[in-house]
């Protein structure tokens, strides 16, 4: 025969069950009555225009020889002259970085035989390419630098990219302008819709500053122009933000 629960313990358990049920019943309807939060998502753009203060130049030497060793020796001699010239122009070693170095065979185009067959190409020599990226921090001397590179034997000149050495302060200004732009548009939408704006829920950023490349003329065309005329133009530092704002 099962033991009976003492009366006082039974009463305590029953009271606890009633209290728990009342608590669950009170919490349930409250959650069901919660209305979904209404929000407005809006984007803004900030833009700061400034003049660049640095430029990067892709330059180097391409040499050929009957053997790979001959081509390499000629390339090394020419590149050493380029490095000496850059040092004489007070360009720091930290502002010179090797971006490409390659040794490759050069093939002679074989003649077509009378029967139309094409013979296998024959190696007639080797080619060595040594390319460096140079950062010029004195834009007033950029034209003279380009002319000097060509006169020193640099026969490979790629694009010129202008940039900003320390863009972060300007980017912060663009961020602030982007938020102002987003809030301005949010107020217009809220006013047109007849609602009031609440607190900002989230802010996210996309985009940002990027240097703008400017392509240079061919290196051989620069020999008759000293110093080479170069226009840096202006740079735009931009920031795009997205705001999620509560609607009251």
UniProtKB/TrEMBL annotation:
<dbReference type="InterPro" id="IPR052022">
    <property type="entry name" value="26kDa_periplasmic_antigen"/>
</dbReference>
<feature type="signal peptide">
    <location>
        <begin position="1"/>
        <end position="32"/>
    </location>
</feature>
<dbReference type="GO" id="GO:0006974">
    <property type="term" value="P:DNA damage response"/>
</dbReference>
<dbReference type="InterPro" id="IPR007497">
    <property type="entry name" value="SIMPL/DUF541"/>
</dbReference>
<dbReference type="Pfam" id="PF04402">
    <property type="entry name" value="SIMPL"/>
</dbReference>
<protein>
    <submittedName>
        <fullName>DUF541 domain-containing protein</fullName>
    </submittedName>
</protein>
<keyword id="KW-0732">Signal</keyword>
